[in-house]
Amino acid sequence: MSMQWIKQHYTLITILVFLVVLNGFFYFHNPQDIVERIGIQNTYVLSFCIAAIGGLSTVTGTVLYSALVTFAAGGSAPWLLGISGGLGIFVSDSIFFFLARLSVQHIPKDKKKWVYKIQKLVSKYPVWKMLIVVYAYLGFLPLPNDILMIALAMTNITYSKLCPIILLGSISFALVTSQFGSALSTL
User: Fold this and answer.
1) Which residue, 65, 87, 111, 170, has most beta carbons within 10 Å?
2) Sign of the C-alpha dihedral, residues 8, 89, 50, 20?
3) 54 HSE (CA, 13 A, CB side)
4) Residue 166 CB coordination number (10 Å)
5) DSSP for residue 75
6) Which residues are within 8 A (CB) of 34 and not within 5 positions of it... i.e. 6 or more apart?
7) Quick one: what percent of the chain has pLDDT higher than 90?
8) Contact partners, residue 173, CB within 8 Å, separation at least 6
């Protein structure tokens, strides 16, 4: 790597180093000590902030997983962690959806082949089936949500139909992750 490359990608490198350090902190410190230092009430606010800022994107998802599991294993209530973390994921995914929808609108017509293919594929199925698939993806698969939000932005499904599903899926995922952390603490 040259110094020029490092200068061009300084922000990305800084974010990645921060994420590695944060994950390392969660890995090498006892969950009870972390929750005791932060304070139980603050874990709920922190889980919301981590989820809202990073969400479950390709790069930052592991920090949220680590935080929810660590906080639940450290004694925070998994239900409250699930709700606060889920609300944060919802905020992050909603922002990403709107940014993706805005971006799709500005793709030149000659480059919209993928958009039309996705719209044609989605139009073959009733909306309620698509919403069930979206809920299953968001609620139970540990995959990046940004990929799904981009695909949904290319469809004609309105945000008012997606909003409750994104909210329920986000809370479900955070609840499952928090319950997993709580179960680890009893082992």
Assistant:
1) 170
2) negative
3) 23
4) 25
5) T
6) 25, 26, 70, 71, 74
7) 47
8) 56, 86, 89, 138, 139, 140
User: With contact defined as beta carbons under 8 Å apart, do 127 and 157 qualify?
Assistant: yes
Q: How far is CA 23 from CA 36, 37, 78, 133, in A?
A: 18, 17, 20, 30
* 69-97: average pLDDT: 94
Residue count of the chain: 187
115 — pLDDT class (breaks 50, 70, 90): confident
Beta strands in the chain (DSSP E): none
What DSSP state is assigned to residue 109?
Answer: G
pTM of the prediction?
Answer: 0.83
139 within 8 A of 173, measured Cβ to Cβ: yes
**Whole-number Cα distances in Å, 45 to 19, 38, 50, 65, 87:** 18, 10, 9, 15, 11
Q: Write out the two tokens for 184.
A: 């680890």
Alpha-carbon gap, residue 157 to 160, rounded angstroms: 8
How far, rounded to the nearest angstrom, does the alpha carbon of residue 40 sit from its chain's CA centroid? 22
C-beta of residue 130 within 8 angstroms of C-beta of residue 122 = yes
At residue 106, the 3 state secondary structure works out as coil
